[in-house]
Amino acid sequence: MAQLGLVGLGKMGFNMRERLRASGHDVVGYDRNPDVSDTASLPELVGALTAPRVVWVMVPAGAPTRNTVAELAELLTEGDIVIDGGNSRYTDDTANAELLGTHGVGYLDVGVSGGVWGKENGYGLMVGGAEADVERAMPFFDALRPEGPREEAFAHAGGVGAGHYAKMVHNGIEYGLMQAYAEGFELLDASDVVSNVPEVIKAWQRGTVVRSWLLELLVRALDEDPELEELEGYVEDSGEGRWTLEEAINNAVPAPVISAALFARFASRQRDSASMRAVAALREQFGGHAVKTKKVTG
């Protein structure tokens, strides 16, 4: 059994705490929501841990993570380790590691994949940082990953920043996979040939080359709502797709699938597209093609 401090008990952090505790680890959690928190403050959490400490941060990326790391730098002591398991941009990791390093505190960045199902199924983990720090934290990584060969769900990706870089690319791939399934669903749904779309997609789960966990989740959604009529076709992006494309540009790596998937999300937020109005106007001008005009009220 090992002891861990866990900062941030939202959907991911809460389930991670439960999975770690089920494996026998002593987890002390802190969250601003007192209903789920074990301690009243970050200083109280640090005080409840026995040195040398390991503190895992699971708060939103950007300023919330940077501020939490900065506060921990003032509270922790030499030999402690901070793990950032959120979806931080990999460029933040160097600054975090340097700040903690001035206090003799180690730093690991961990890309965590598994979503709300991780508590039951385990999490895929991509880790960046020093080998010695990774080894110290390995009991927690082994408890969080799925059962089976370690290398199938865990990777020490490289030095500081490598874990979040790997997770960024992972999420970029995820964008493309989800978009492909979504476009396939729409084409089947629009066809006059296929009369039972949910059954077709369900049949892809075994024996086909497109089977995957994402497909299983789509089947689950269709079981609950066969036409997906209860949902609005509005999709946000949390940053990783944009960062992936920036890295593709910086490294001159073509990424047309991921870029198209990201832009499709942008399109989903447009109630009335100015660019498509321009296209309609041009088609009317050069070819006399029919257009739809807005109804004027009042």
Automatic annotation (TrEMBL):
Residues 163-297 form the 6-phosphogluconate dehydrogenase C-terminal domain. InterPro entries: 6-PGluconate_DH-like_C_sf (IPR008927), 6DGDH_YqeC (IPR004849), 6PGD_dom2 (IPR013328), 6PGDH_C (IPR006114), 6PGDH_NADP-bd (IPR006115), 6PGdom_BS (IPR006184), NAD(P)-bd_dom_sf (IPR036291), Pgluconate_DH (IPR006183). GO terms for molecular function: NADP binding; phosphogluconate dehydrogenase (decarboxylating) activity. Keywords: Gluconate utilization, Oxidoreductase. Signal peptide: none annotated. GO terms for biological process: D-gluconate metabolic process; pentose-phosphate shunt. NCBIfam families: gnd_rel, PRK09599.1. Belongs to the 6-phosphogluconate dehydrogenase family. This is 6-phosphogluconate dehydrogenase (Decarboxylating). It comes from Saccharomonospora piscinae. The lineage of its organism: Bacteria, Bacillati, Actinomycetota, Actinomycetes, Pseudonocardiales.
